[in-house]
Fold this protein.
Amino acid sequence: MRIHLKSSAAALTTMILVAAAASLAQNLSKAEIKTVPVAGNVSMLTGAGGNIGVSVGEDGVLLIDDGCLQIVDRVKTAVAAFHPGPIRFALNTNWHTDHANGNELLARAGAVVIAHENSRRHMLSEQIYPEFGADAKVPPYPKEALPVITVGDALTLHFNGDEIRMVHVANAHSDGDLIFRFDKANVIHAGDIFFSSGFPFIHVSGGGTIAGMIKAQDFLLGMCDERTKVVPGHGPVSDRGGVRAFKDLLVAGRDRIANLIKSGKSLEEAIAAKPVEGLYKGGKSMISSDTFVKVVYGDLTGKYRKP
Ligand SMILES: [Zn+2]
């Protein structure tokens, strides 16, 4: 894990929220990569950090996100089980290490890395996550991991008989998010602008905002029809209904936290008031409700530095 932290508590928090958002209990050295068919020639791999989208076909293999560094070999093995390769493209939904840390090894093996231009910019320098304390730091990525192609607003890749549309959504989970839509397969990989497993992490100090997250759901809904499969950054494969439910969660959560701020509550008081408890009804949220309150409160009050 390319993360340097002084305290183990901070390390744990950062591991969960920044690097291995997969789950608290998951030990990456033992993580099992599972393949989930999505639609057409698109599949999803779980267990490597963020969800990995895979397109296989006559042109080779394309990955959307590539997980954490330690398990790239297992990702490659999982891909090789249904296609001999090569892995020609590695696209990143954002620059966080649970999504882009496999870039280095894949690029060394010949893959072309593509990401949003702001993601590349963040990858060049040390990242500090004030949401989790001054000790939460991630070093710059090595040169080999950097995207060689960057996207501004949009780009289309013609690959494996499909049109893969890459679209930037501004200031949502971060300021470097891309959504990927496979026109023919009717699949969207939304990255971390969409969690199907409860509350999201919003990287406020990395340019993310709750307002942008909500707006991004409307944008996502505009790209969906009733058959569209939506791969989230974290959680099981979902659809239009799942995106609608997630938007409702964000709006209700934002409103409740904003009310506490309006009534003069401090961050500690707002967290203690448990304003979003019970809003997510799908079981245990991967990101805790307290963390969600903390980052949204920080966003709405301008507490965290913007890039
Ligand atoms: Zn993530």
